[in-house]
Design goal:
This protein has 373 residues and is of the alpha/beta class. It has twelve helices and 13 strands. The strands form three sheets. Strands 3-4-5-6-9-10-11-12-13 form a nine-stranded mixed β-sheet. Strands 1-2 form a two-stranded parallel ribbon. It has a two-stranded antiparallel ribbon with strand order 7-8. Helix 10 links the parallel strand 12 and strand 13. The relative contact order is 0.12.
Length: 373
């Protein structure tokens, strides 16, 4: 539901937000109170802001809205993973995924509608890029997710989920649709809102940006964003990586690893995560593990490697490596004292797993099958 002829207060960065409120003859502290109502308490109606005068609330109601995007689908996996299809005012859609675990809850969010990269193993890459998300659209994914799982201070309730799983968003990962660094400025502005202590108050150490390997933006991020960094690696030599990830033609492994080394130097207490999807007979051989080890040692990188079983999607040409192959790959890495957990697949039955997100162009029969689960 979107209100016409009113500015949406959630569309402003903090500075503009304060200026808008002050322009109504309110004090700056009042702007901070309103900001807190929206981003800390999750309030969607000005009349619920009980420490704001009735007159001020009426003025705010006439001038502004607090509309959220529409949830056009809400799918819950058998394992508790929850996928939301979020529709914006122009009817474009993105997906976000909430992954509850025993001691944490991770929200995977999108930065673009579609993607330009066309990585061969990624479902999102089959969807043409429509546009970048605005910063408020990025933040809105957190707001609507918190609405749906009742994750505001005054509405803590259980969602239809295992009681052993955590019903709160503790971590944010930019691992949904799109390449975050192709939308760097909006991602930067969104992170400032997520990190604001008067609102959502997510620590930068609880926010991870995943990139396919845009070297200039990795270097920029190392000095500016100070979040966790994940690299979608997936290949251990240039020929292999270029074959499955075209971005490697522009930023080959030497440049990527050199940028990672600089990132490590600028952020000495943070490990970079290498995301590595395990593709049967493509990148899962012993020689691939040894190539990866040699590169990590050559560039003296402080990293951990997430080994990800490939999650299939309709029309893909790849298969996941067998469990024994993944375990053998892991054992080789661990032999050289590298941290290399095998990621547990979550949400595969609702196409919410790693590499499966896509908001448009799924066969209607397949969408209906998921909706009717």
């Amino acid at each position: 539901m979107f209100t016409k002829n009113k500015n949406n207060l959630t569309h402003f960065d903090k500075k503009t937000f304060v200026n808008e409120i002050v322009s109504l003859n309110e004090k700056p502290f009042r702007a901070n109170q309103i900001w807190s109502w929206i981003y800390h308490h999750g309030i969607k109606n000005f009349h619920d802001m009980t420490n704001i005068s009735k007159q001020s609330r009426e003025i705010l109601e006439k001038k502004f809205s607090l509309d959220r995007p529409e949830i056009s689908k809400d799918l819950i996996s058998f394992d508790g993973t929850r996928k939301f299809l979020i529709k914006f005012s122009d009817n474009q859609e993105v997906e976000a995924v909430f992954i509850p675990e025993k001691n944490r809850g991770t929200l995977c969010i999108s930065s673009q509608i579609g993607c330009t990269l066309s990585c061969k193993f990624c479902h999102t890459g089959t969807q043409t890029l429509v546009r970048n998300l605005e910063s408020h659209e990025i933040v809105s994914q957190i707001l609507v997710a918190k609405d749906l799982i009742n994750d505001w201070p005054t509405t803590k309730l259980s969602i239809p989920n295992s009681s052993e799983q955590f019903n709160s968003i503790t971590h944010i990962v930019f691992m949904g649709m799109g390449e975050p660094f192709f939308n760097y400025d909006n991602v930067d502005r969104a992170i400032k809102i997520l990190n604001d202590p008067d609102g959502l108050n997510f620590s930068l150490r609880k926010i991870t940006i995943s990139t396919s390997g845009l070297v200039p933006e990795i270097l920029r991020c190392s000095k500016e964003l100070k979040t966790n960094l994940a690299i979608s690696l997936h290949g251990t030599n240039d020929e292999l990586r270029t074959n499955i990830m075209a971005i490697n033609k522009k930023y080959p492994l030497h440049e990527l690893f050199s940028a990672c080394k600089i990132y490590n130097r600028e952020n000495p207490h943070q490990k970079i995560t290498f995301e590595y999807v395990m593709l049967r007979n493509v990148n899962d051989q012993e020689k691939n593990a040894l190539e990866l080890i040699n590169s990590i040692n050559k560039y003296n990188l402080n990293v951990k490697i997430n080994l990800i079983p490939f999650n299939p999607w309709q029309g893909c040409d790849y298969f996941s490596s067998d469990e024994t192959v993944i375990k053998r790959f892991q054992d080789i890495l661990k032999k050289y004292d590298l941290i290399a957990p095998i990621r547990k697949t979550r949400g595969q039955d609702v196409l919410a797993a790693c590499g499966q997100l896509k908001s448009m162009s799924l066969p209607k029969s397949y969408k209906n099958r998921l909706t009717n689960k």
